[in-house]
């Protein structure tokens, strides 16, 4: 959402209770008060929404399906998830592109010419780590020195029991001394019994876990001091980033992804309102509409190709598609891959 200023329509401009223009991503005070009234009373007359148009533009009010003259409040968390979805996808695409550039350029680091002067030294803010032992050693050192928070992002759903047990043992003393730990996983990780056991064995307030439908490559951030990014799918090469501006940027990216994710303690919606498909099928449909093949869809969703194709088959059956080409046409026509799905899916 861009910080453009809202402008009133001609009808709104002549309204006795005109909506005062303001940045599009903000709520004016009349809107906040009106939303509180709508929540308290279970809805408001549509005629009262004129001085708070930003409520409808941000999706916080919707028409009452049983009374066309009334508007109903939409939970703020639901609206936030919808508004953040395109932003989170954009962040994911940008990080994926950054990882691709890193993969292409990191091997050239070893063939760079030697320094020729005091002003020609390598940038100490980014260090290439080669080999899993070197990566693990550096991360362990950063973990020992952490004082405030650890942020982690994990793609896929496979979390070996041994690895999680090691993480649990190292996390206990950190949590006990007040360090906060946040983990981001994909939705598919919710069904991993090892992760459930990990959560049960760490009943500390400082531990928070959320899941989201798609993530990028593995990421670790320790305080505002260091971040680690895997540079390939084998995870035997990584970048250690200590440049303050880059670390701040990665923390900001993480917070955007976190805001759009679902807390681990809350159940996922198995079906979406006004659509005949499940939430997982909707995510797969979006990726198919973007032109991704089955293998890419499965990888982005953190599931196996077999499971992915099973969901696609159910999606075809639900929409009445006779072929994959027909499915693509139906997805476009139905509008379910847009941020606000169409209610007409016939």
Features:
11 strands; disordered C terminus; eight-stranded mixed sheet; 346 residues
Write up this protein.
Helices cover 43% and strands 15% of the residues. It has twelve helices and eleven strands. The chain has an eight-stranded mixed sheet, sandwiched between helices. It has a three-stranded antiparallel sheet with strand order 1-3-2. Helix 9 packs across helix 10 and helix 10 crosses helix 11. The chain starts with 9 loop residues before the first helix and ends in a 12-residue tail after the last helix. The model is unreliable at 1-16, 110-121 and 339-346 (pLDDT under 50).
Task: Describe the structure in brief.
The protein contains twelve helices and eleven strands. By secondary structure, it is α+β, with helices and mostly antiparallel strands.
